[in-house]
Amino acid sequence: MKIGVYLCECGGNISKVVDLPNVAEFVKPFDDVAIIRQHSNMCSGAGQKLIIEDVKEHKLDKVVIAACSPQFHEKTFRGALEKAGLSPYVLEIANFREHCSWPHRENPEIATLKAKDLVESSVNKARLDYALDKKTIKMGNRVLVIGAFQNFSDGRLCRLYHFTQNGRCAG
């Protein structure tokens, strides 16, 4: 197994607080880590191109990206993995910005220690990841609510989904 680890500077949002070269040195001896890269903006076209080229050139099996919140760029990174020929589900994202650099901006040592913990956890999780198949399921126009139906006693669900019994809300 070959894992690529990518450390994003996030335009200084991360690199001005977290000691990324120190994190890279920490990751170097990990089994299965084949390559470690640091880039100014991993989400940029150049950053994605770097990942795609590395996956192909170094025959990477899994990818760990230490950057900002997956909420912002998980889709971007999964797309890059697909372009490189990997399953988008062999990706782990360590949130260095929101979990390390922003909350600990006054204490870079703590931010860096936390970043090391997060990247180590992400590498360990990546070792367990495997490719998943995408499936499409045909959806109907019916809904089944199990539990907590009282919350919809105003009929919102009935109006939205025409969920009725004898012409009335079945709640």
Molecular structure report:
Helix content is 40%, strand content 16%. The chain has helices at residues 20-27, 45-58, 70-83, 96-101, 108-128, 156-161, and strands spanning 3-8, 33-39, 62-67, 91-95, 164-165, 168-169. The chain has a four-stranded parallel β-sheet with strand order 2-1-3-4, with helices on both faces. The chain has a two-stranded antiparallel ribbon with strand order 5-6.
Layout of helices and strands:
Elements: E1 3-8, H1 20-27, E2 33-39, H2 45-58, E3 62-67, H3 70-83, E4 91-95, H4 96-101, H5 108-128, H6 156-161, E5 164-165, E6 168-169
Parallel strand pairs: 1-2, 1-3, 3-4
Antiparallel strand pairs: 5-6
Helix pairs in contact: 1-5, 2-3
* Structure classification: alpha/beta
Strand order in the sheet with the most strands: 2-1-3-4
The major pleated sheet works out as:
4 strands, parallel
Number of strands: 6
- Indicate the CATH class of the largest domain: Alpha Beta
Do you know the CATH topology of the largest domain?
Rossmann fold
Roughly how many Å apart are the termini?
53 Å
| Rg | 22 Å
User: How would you describe the shape?
Assistant: globular
Q: Which whole number gives the mean pLDDT?
A: 88
* Number of H- or I-type helical stretches: 6
Count of discrete domains: 2
Secondary-structure element order, N to C: EHEHEHEHHHEE
CATH architecture of the largest domain: 3-Layer(aba) Sandwich
- Which stretches are low in confidence, meaning pLDDT under 50 for 5 or more residues running? 160-164
Share of helix, binned: 40-55%
